[in-house]
Amino acid sequence: MKTLISALLLVISSCLFAQDYRSTVVTDPSISRRCDALMNKRNLKIDHKQKLKSLIVRNQKIQKIVPGEKKSVKQGLQKNLRHLEHELKLTLVQIQNQEENIIRKGCPGITL
User: Fold this and answer.
1) Closest C-alpha to 110, from 19, 29, 34
2) Can you point out the beta strands (E) in 12-112?
3) pLDDT by position in tens, the chain (length 112)
4) For residues 19 and 21, what is the distance between their CA atoms, to the nearest angstrom?
5) Residue among 4, 90, 97 nearest 49 (CA)
6) b/e code 87-112 from CB counts within 10 Å (16+ = b)
7) Which one in 27, 30, 52, 74 has a CA-CA gap of 20 to 30 Å to 20?
8) Count of domains observed in the chain
9) CB distance 90 to 44 below 8 Å
10) Radius of gyration (Cα) for the chain, nearest Å?
11) Which pTM was predicted?
């Protein structure tokens, strides 16, 4: 009986300590703001990547449609495609850099 009472007291005291601990933990708002800013930059880059991919697909479809006689149009589309692919590569590098910054800065509770 004594062991049951002591076990109950131990459980209750540990629960009270856990609640007290949660109420005394202070989160720095500057860390949250910095993490939010980093995540927003990353999300903007991801949106940009998706737009570039859709433009690349659109360019490729247009290249298939354009007749072979229109050489200048085909050349322009090919040049545009090279620029889009180059920009996509740069954007992917920037996204990876942003993810590394988020991890390096130690943002709590972030899942990428």
Assistant:
1) 34
2) none
3) 556 566 655 556 665 555 554 555 445 666 778 888 888 999 999 999 999 999 999 999 999 999 989 999 999 999 999 999 999 999 999 999 999 888 887 776 666 6
4) 5
5) 90
6) ebeebeebbeebeeebeeeebeeeee
7) 30
8) 1
9) no
10) 27
11) 0.68
Range of the domain at 87: 29-105
66: its two tokens: 């354009």
* pLDDT (0 to 100) of residue 17: 52
Q: Is residue 50 part of a domain?
A: yes
Q: Are 18 and 85 in contact (CB under 8 A)?
A: no
From residue 44, how far is each of 29, 40, 112 by CA, in Å?
Answer: 22, 6, 14
Euclidean distance between the first and the last CA atom of the chain, given in angstroms as a whole number: 51
Domain membership flag for residue 16:
no
CB 88 within 8 A of CB 49: yes
Q: Which residue is listed with tokens 């910095």?
A: 34
